[in-house]
Amino acid sequence: MPALTPKQFVAKWSQITQKETAVSQSHFNDICHLVGHQTPLEYDPAGKNFSFETQTEKPDGAKGFADVFFRNKFIWEYKGPHKNLTKAYQQLQLYREDLQNPPLLITSDIHTIHIYTNFNNYPTQKHVITFDDLLSGAGVDKLRWAFFDPDQFKPAKTQAQITKATADTLLAVAEQMKKHRDMLGGESYSNEQLAHFLVRLLFALFAEDMGLLPDNLFTQIVRMRGNNYEDLQDVLCELFTKMRGGGTFGMWRIRHFDGTLFDDAFVPDIPHDLGRALLQAAEQDWSQVDPSIFGTLFERVIDESKRAQLGAHYTSEADIMLIVEPVLMEPLKRKWEAVRRQADRMLRQPINNQQSTINGTSAYAAY
Nearest CA to 20 among 107, 93, 96? Predict the structure, then answer.
């Protein structure tokens, strides 16, 4: 097994501009040499556990081929230099279920490698490896983890833990809002206004962390006020107004967010403690939160007697699927497979009479 240094690897592959079909397997073999692992053919001549071009079935029944499959380690998909790796990642998401959901999904355009974690009940994390990372050694270490110890990539907290901790910061905002309202005699805004503001706030936090609001805009707005939040109410009102119709907000272009969420731009007065709570909520990564918790979260906001039950009502996606999969999805999949086989047989035969057409229509209608 020939060894390859990071310097040799970068010198060779930084010059490559050919499309992925011409170079992907050679590139991957060199990755193996770089990290000190056997190539797929050396490690598994039969191709059952580690192979190129592994056939897989997508959720819709269509066939696909994973560029590299290493059982219980990763699936690896290539695109040509400087091509869209998001599409490669989307392909892997279609392949992963049929390939036993390995812990890592990896994409590469020859010049860059993206490693996405795929651990059940853990948030997805993305690691980018560039040529500079390989030369520094850090990128080589991460590639070795992928081949020899994928658990090194496992996030420190589960999805449920992150969701609970992040949701608590929004509850803290609600607590401060209610506290401030009570200090003003309880007439400044209703629970419904409070809840509506929190929904808008939550949407803005998600939009920011999903890239729908530019440049961490919401967090910047709150953070740049330091310890003085006197004008934050007016600034957030202006932001919510722009989100309703789209337009320019300072130096940023704001998208138009359809629907009725921003039909009003109510924002409460924001004293210091509420401003600090808003900043703490904004600094969380809301893209990693499981949205299924938020119905319960807003119920807790409205009904204080249920506030302590937030964690008790959280049901993870995996737990839900333990029920949904055998009860709902498996029967539907079996029915669809039977319909698909019948339709395939009919499509291979000439339609000679009206009865064939009726049967075909009935088959699809049954699904």
Answer: 107
